[in-house]
Amino acid sequence: MPIDKIYGHNLENVPPFTFNEEVAKVFDNMISRSVPLYYELEELIANFAIHYYQKNTNIYDLGCSTGETLVQISRKSTTRINLIGVDSSKAMVSKAKIKCKAYKNIALKVADIRETDLENASVVIITYVLQFLPVADRLSLLKEIFESTVPNGVALISEKISFADNNQDFVALHEQFKKNNKYSDLEIKQKREALENVLITRTQAQNILMIKEAGFRIVEPFFQCLNFCSFLAIK
Hints:
The protein is an alpha/beta fold. The chain has eight helices and eight strands.
């Protein structure tokens, strides 16, 4: 697995973070060293997806990155499930195609998830994706997901969150997590600058309110580690 060294040297001007070819090459390493319990969450999401899957429907992964969640679901499922991954990054989808090559039940496409038609979906997965969309676009996407899912369908939504009291303890502990994973102070600082005004967080309460406003009748947090939280939304 290629090691993430993107921010390992001093950059005169730190460009805004994008999911380009450079990031795609090291994404699996980057995400595992940046997000606490990322692969444990992927396994949990796969279990949830299989549990809530309804026969003869589709499972969508919106913002599928390198396809790890799709592979986890396919490996764990005892029945064939139609899995569809969508990502706006061509570089990410190229990586996903390599990873998912052995799984004939996985379809991948490059598209803006805000403009993607969802068909016959019982499960829609959206992991650390809404945070990269303009706040004004998030509710409309969630409404589209709600309208497109079958009765009793679910959305599995994961987000980096902020705190109403501006508590910085979890932020500091998250940075310590990255240091423990061999990121330097320079790398952490420059990555933070790259994400400024690109990744916009909301509180857990704001996310729950937004998901409910989209129409989902049940919204329950099912996972949290530091400032990362996942929600089960049931239609």
